């Protein structure tokens, strides 16, 4: 007879309890008697099982541990992966066909490039914005294009940050900048609004806090004595559009580096005039 059969037979024998047609008919003396008998039976069963375990191989002896203990050991052996915090990436601009392709809407266009590169649809309407959720590699992101018009962007962005409780260190705002040469990018960890009314509105709705990242896209200064208001609403010519497309590609990569490798590496990449292959 093999070891498994011995275990099975002995365990079954040890589990037999005395049979009685009607156990409720026990007298007080009978109850004490059977309680004592049951205690002896349990002691005998422990002794018999411990004796049999001496004949079992180590693998069989290990299996006598409780399943709860095994589960606990397994959970300790495999640590849970750390959950990534969600980022909010905002592109500023004005809604409507009238403003499509204008200098003031490069924030929208950069966000569209990020969404396309990562397969995220920015089509849901929420908090006065077009929004989309997805991942940039393994980092969860929410992309947003406020539809409040530029000067009231903070109404939308402030509501999103408040509702989802997104830390300001996990917020990136992308917008046009008159003070940067055309198609240049600058990534900054914080700062003022620089006269950009969309940024002014966001800072106001953040209760004056300026501690959030921003990616500035240069659109250059207006020629001659042209009013800046008219200049930012002008479309790009063909040559400018080709140069801007390269800027969008560079911006998409900068955002990827920011989320995966941190601000310093992203700033080194995007704030340099050298191609990424020449860095380091």
UniProtKB/TrEMBL annotation:
Pfam families in UniProt: Pept_tRNA_hydro
Keyword rRNA-binding: no
PROSITE patterns: PEPT_TRNA_HYDROL_1 (PS01195)
Signal peptide: none
Keywords of the record: Hydrolase, RNA-binding, tRNA-binding
Enzyme Commission identifier(s): 3.1.1.29
A molecular function GO annotation: peptidyl-tRNA hydrolase activity
Family under the similarity heading: Belongs to the PTH family.
PANTHER family per record: PEPTIDYL-TRNA HYDROLASE (PTHR17224)
HAMAP family: Pept_tRNA_hydro_bact
Protein name, UniProt field: peptidyl-tRNA hydrolase
Organism: Tripterygium wilfordii
């Amino acid at each position: 007879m093999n070891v498994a059969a011995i275990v099975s037979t002995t365990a079954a024998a040890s589990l037999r309890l005395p049979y009685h047609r009607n156990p409720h008919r026990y007298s007080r003396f009978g109850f004490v008697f059977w309680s004592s008998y049951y205690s002896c039976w349990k002691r005998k069963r422990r002794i018999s099982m411990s004796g049999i375990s001496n004949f079992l191989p180590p693998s069989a002896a290990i299996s006598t541990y409780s399943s709860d203990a095994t589960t606990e050991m397994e959970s300790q052996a495999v640590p849970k992966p750390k959950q990534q915090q969600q980022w909010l990436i905002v592109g500023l601009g004005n809604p409507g066909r009238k403003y499509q392709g204008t200098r003031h809407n490069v924030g929208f266009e950069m966000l569209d490039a990020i969404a396309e590169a990562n397969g995220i649809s920015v089509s849901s309407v929420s908090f006065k914005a077009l929004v989309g959720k997805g991942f940039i590699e393994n980092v969860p992101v929410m992309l947003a294009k406020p539809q409040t018009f530029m000067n009231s962007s903070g109404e939308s962005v402030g509501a999103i940050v408040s509702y989802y409780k997104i830390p300001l260190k996990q917020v990136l705002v992308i917008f046009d900048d008159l003070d940067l040469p055309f198609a240049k990018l600058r990534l900054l960890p914080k700062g003022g609004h620089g006269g950009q009314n969309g940024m002014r509105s966001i800072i106001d709705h953040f209760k004056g806090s300026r501690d959030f990242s921003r990616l500035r896209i240069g659109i250059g200064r207006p020629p001659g004595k042209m009013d800046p208001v008219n200049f930012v609403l002008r479309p790009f010519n063909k040559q400018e559009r080709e140069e801007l497309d390269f800027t969008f590609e560079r911006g998409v990569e900068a955002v990827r580096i920011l989320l995966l490798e941190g601000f310093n590496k992203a700033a080194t990449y995007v704030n340099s005039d050298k191609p990424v292959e020449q860095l380091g």
